[in-house]
Amino acid sequence: MSIRPSAYVADSFVDYLESKEKELSSSTDYSERMNTQKQRNTIDRILNFLQCAKINTDLSASRVENIYNPIAGNKNFQTMKEYLYHKALKNDLICNVSFEQSLTNNISFEKFIQETDDPNAVYFIPLDVAESQIIQNKFGLVVIGNGFDFNSFYEDKNFAGKTISKGMDEITVCKHPCNSLIIVDPYFFSGKNWKMNKAPGIIKIIKAFILENLSLKFHLLILTEMDKSISDYKPQINFLMECLGGNENLFMESYIDSSKIFSSDRLFITNYAYINIGHPFDRETCLNSTIFFSGNNQESIKENFDEQMKKIELIRDSIKKIPKTIGTIKTVLKTNEVDANRLLYM
C-alpha cells in the first residue's frame, strides 16, 4: 500500500459533518438545493480526502470496533460515521490517538499538534472558527473547526496556466497555510543585477507563504545549480535572510545540485502543494498549483499526494549526493536547532 496523507479527526467533527450533510440534503425545494450545491460538493471533497487518508481518531479502539462490527457483514451503512470508520478499518487506515485532555481547550490542542509533528496532516477539530483559525495561523497547518462554512476546501487553489505579472502580485492566488517551502530553480541566484531584477519577485513569492502569526520558524530550502562555490552567493543569501525576517523567524538552507533533476521550470513545494512557474522571477509567466488534499475525487487526491511525495523523495536523494566540497549553506545558529527542512522527513 502506498503512503497516505494523515487526517486527525475528532469524532465530534464527524458528527458535525454528518449533521451538516443531512441539513443540506433535506430540502425539497429545487432552488434551495441549487443554492447549497457548493456546500454539498465541499462535504464530498472532505469525505473523499478522509477516505484516502490515514485517519487518526480520538475514539478508542473498542468504540471503533463497536461501530464496525455490526455492519461488517452486511455493509448496510446507516450513518456517515459507520461508512467512514468501516472503510478506514477495513483498509488498515485508522489509528487511535490520545488528543491531549479535551479538544475544547485550544491550549491542550496546541500541545497535541506539537507532539504529532506531522507537517502535511489536515486537522478536523471541535473548536469554533475563530479558535481553529488562530491555531492554523500559529502552526501553518490546515485546521478545520466546527462552524466551518463548507463554501470551499481549497479547491480554488488548484489551477493550471494562470498568468501572473512581472511584479508577482498574483502569487497570492495560491496562498494557503504552510510552515515550509522548498524551491527548486536551476537559475535561482543567476542573472545580472540579481538584487534589483529577480530578488523582489523571489521575496514576494516567499513572503506570500509565511503566515504573519506563525509561532515556529518557517523552513525554506533552495536547491539550485551554479558554476561557482555557494559561498560566492553568500551576499544574496544574507540579503534574502534580512528581507525575510532573519534567523529568529526563518531557517534557510541553500544547496548546489548539478544533476538537473528537474526541468528549467521553477518548482515550489509546501506542506500541502506543489506549484511551478515557467519563467524567472523578473517577467510575466504562467502559474500552476495543486493542493493534494482537495482533488475532485479519491483518485486525483491519491495521485496528487503521490506526486508530491515523489518530488520530495527526488529532492532528498539529490541532496544526499551533493559533495560537501561544493558547498551548502544553512542558517542554523545553535547546535540544538533543526538541521534539515521538515518537509524532507514527512
Would you spell out the secondary-structure blueprint of this structure?
Blueprint (H helix, E strand, L loop, with lengths): L5 E4 L1 H15 L4 H6 L1 H16 L1 E4 L3 H8 L11 H11 L3 E3 L9 H11 L5 E4 L3 H11 L2 E4 L13 E6 L15 E5 L9 H4 L1 H11 L8 E7 L9 H10 L6 E7 L9 E5 L2 E5 L7 E7 L6 H24 L6 E3 L16
Parallel strand pairs: 1-2, 1-4, 2-3, 4-5, 7-8, 8-9
Antiparallel strand pairs: 6-12, 7-10, 9-13, 10-11, 11-12
Summarize the structure.
With 346 residues, this protein is α/β, with parallel strands linked by helices.
Textual characterization of the structure:
The chain has 346 residues and is α/β, with parallel strands linked by helices. Helices cover 37% and strands 18% of the residues. The protein is built from 11 helices and 13 strands. It has helices at residues 11-25, 30-35, 37-52, 61-68, 80-90, 106-116, 129-139, 194-197, 199-209, 234-243, 298-321; strands at residues 6-9, 54-57, 94-96, 122-125, 142-145, 159-164, 180-184, 218-224, 250-256, 266-270, 273-277, 285-291, 328-330. The chain has an 8-stranded mixed β-sheet, sandwiched between helices. A 5-stranded parallel β-sheet has the order 3-2-1-4-5. β4 (122-125), α7 (129-139) and β5 (142-145) form a beta-alpha-beta unit. The two termini are 17 Å apart. Residues 332-336 have low confidence and may be disordered.
Number of strands: 13
Order of helices and strands: EHHHEHHEHEHEEEHHEHEEEEHE
Kindly provide the radius of gyration, computed on alpha-carbon positions and rounded to a whole number of angstroms.
22 Å
The average pLDDT score comes to: 84
Helix content: 25-40%
Number of H/I helices: 11
The CA-CA distance between the termini, in Å, is 17 Å
Largest sheet: 8 strands, mixed
Unreliable residue runs: 332-336
Gross morphology is: elongated
Beta-strand residue fraction = 15-25%
What class would the helix/strand composition place it in? alpha/beta
Strand order in space, largest sheet? 6-12-11-10-7-8-9-13
